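Hi X.,

You mentioned you wanted examples for the new student's onboarding notes, showing what a folding record looks like when two proteins sit in one file. Here is a clean example. The first protein comes first, with its sequence line followed by its structure tokens.
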Amino acid sequence: MKSLFVSSGLSLAFSMAALAANAFDESSWDSSQIIRRDVAIIGGGAAGTYATFRLKDHGKSVVLVEKTGRLGGHAVTYEDPITGGSVDYGVQVYDNNSIVRNFFSRLNTPLADFSFASFGRPIYADFKEGVLLNLTSGGLGQDYINELNKYPYLNDGIELPNPVSEDLLLPWVDYINKYHLDYSTAVATLARPAITGDLLNILTLYVFNDLNHLMLQEESGAAVINANHDNSQLYRNAVPELQPDLFLNSTVVAGYRSTRKRDGVRLIIQTPAGFKLIIAKQLILGIPPVLENMRSFGLDSHEHDVLSNIYGLPYYGGVVSNTGLASGFSYKNSAANTTYNVAEIPSVVGFTPSTVDGLFFYWYNSPEPVSQQQIEGEARDAIKLLQKLTNSTTQPEPRFLAFADFAPYQLRASADSIRNGFYDDMYGLQGHRNTWYTGTLFVTGSSQVWNNTEVMLPEILAAINASKSLREAAWILLSHTLKRLGNIVGE
């Protein structure tokens, strides 16, 4: 039995062996394959990486498991081999607060002030019909702020009252009409490139949760960016500091999570060097907790019922050169004949100039998964159309340099699930079976994920310390029992 665990073996053989009763028994493993830590963290994106460092700063031992070969999640960067410049085509900016500044400083990563004006002057075009549109947006008005202020509990999470306001469960276009939001305000809320799905029919709750006061502060100037336009640098700098507590290209294949704090968590992970057993007091999940990602963690029926309500959306990004498009402009896909000129999906959201001359990044919004080939084909057609519409002096063939799939993106639940208490149930899972959920389930953007992690940290630390106290008490009791037995035998 032991040889199945300590060798890299066949996955099939392992998966069968993992069903055995003693799969999580440390005596079935070679000691070199056992990892003991205070906390196991799954997912090396913004949430998992930040939590790892903050727990280490508090003197806790941590192991971080990431399924890809890099840290950073949606912070993806293309490095141009010709100029040496960088293009971020995922995460763009951060809130200018002490948590962000301290984390960047902690990892020796420089920051710079950022202005959204650097994205270029907007040119609106219908990428499908092939026409330029004379659109202007006055931006968000006080009417939006007044509505946002009704729901302060959406600024730093989704802790809803019971019953939840039915207004929050309206499709956004219905809310706009019900409260007579100004046309320019409506357009501004729908023109946000990072909001995914069918923009008109997104639940109002998610509009306010995404475009909250923190985001408004960023857009008004309280925003920072990596000084090298390389948001991946933060995570590259993290890797050396995390050795040997970091396992890249590794996945959880089986898990046992006890309801008792003293028993903690046991995870079997598959790494490039073979299978390992993690024994930890607590577990933090920085991954999207959709069922597809959670099947290896041994869900109980309650967890399964709650997590089955979560769904994520497809979203894609890439970098393209040789466009023939003028720099200094961003090219936005807007429909000529739809409500509020919202482009139908699936479609390219737009092309934004980068700080590397001639390179643009783009995003693609779709209700269903789409292949890279189809996305780049549509992006190519849109660029060729824009070349003609803008009277480009050259009409070269676009070259696609980088591509990323961000799914499952912007995690949501249905209106019925929310009415039935989904978010109360989800918050109720925090700490259940020694497991904690971070990431973008309750907030959007790295800055807010880090803020929320700070809020959760005292509870997580208390759970770690409680587990330690219970173990110490159990050991003392065992020692006393053995001593008494020894005295009885001696008599």
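Then the second protein repeats the pattern, sequence line and then tokens:
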Amino acid sequence: MSQQRLISLDALRGFTIAAMVLVNFPGSWRYVYEPLEHAAWNGITPTDFIYPFFLFIVGVSIVLAFSKRLESDTSKAGLYKKIVIRSLKIFAVGVFLSLIPYFNFAELRVTGVLQRIAIVFMACAFIFLKTSFRTQAWIGAVILVAYWLAMTLIPTPGYNQPMLDPGVNLAAWFDSLFLPGKMWQGDWDPEGFLSTVPAIASGIAGLLAGQLLLSDRQPHEKANLLMVAGFFSVLAGYVWSLTFPLNKNIWTSSYVLVTAGAASLALGAAYYIIDLKKYTRWTWPGIVFGANAIAVYVLADLLAIVFYTIPFGGESLNMHFVLTLIAAGVAPKLASMLYAILFVCINFIPAYILYRKKIFIKL
């Protein structure tokens, strides 16, 4: 099984991280276009696709990275150790970001975006190394069905029926018992422990896509299968949402199918356009961001301390920028989005320097 560097995957990873930074750091949370916000509860917006896209890409990357090592007869015991260490480092960085800049341990939030990525990475890496393609598909299916049945059939403790409301559902109840520290929304957390289980299925979908890309099938057939599988996954997810609504906050099974299907469609299209048709000129910003994806995410959080807290003319830098544009006649939401784009560009500068110097920071 020959392996070539997939420019499409590198670019997709980078553009996903850039999109993450864009939606996480608007000029002002008071002025945000609706597509750049998460759905308040049920439903889905373009922003709600970004995080599961990254988890899908994590799954694909696991296959590409560990297949090479297995072909070179690398010890599995050594791989398990590296997986655990890397997961712990990513988790620890996520906890660190939740503490800065004040390091108030009384307000410590143990969960978060990087923490969930760490858990999904470790679980999916172990699953890939220990199971076959078919078993992985079954594990993903069982996770989604079991989560659906648990969330919709088990009565929420304290109530006489299953509930799917904010803070009043099985996931929130589970987290209230077993999740240490502060929860993001007081009585529930969108990155809670129980809802991380179906997030593992998002990573497993990436495992399946990665193995398809490394299969002996013809390149055009791979692209077609990725897009066909993606289409039917999205369709199945929307049908499932009639009984188990699309919901990022509790990472419903329907949400997994819709977002993983969309990621498969995107990867199939990118693979066809970039790797097969060789239209690569426009991909370089994504490749630069993707080369140090986690580092860029961490850097954005650190730079935000400067831009969102240090006063400049009586306002933070971000608000000074937004208010200046508004005073010049720019619509508030457009001014906020222009700041977000500028912030992405600012993060691109150190990412580009690292890329040019061939420095790749691997947590």
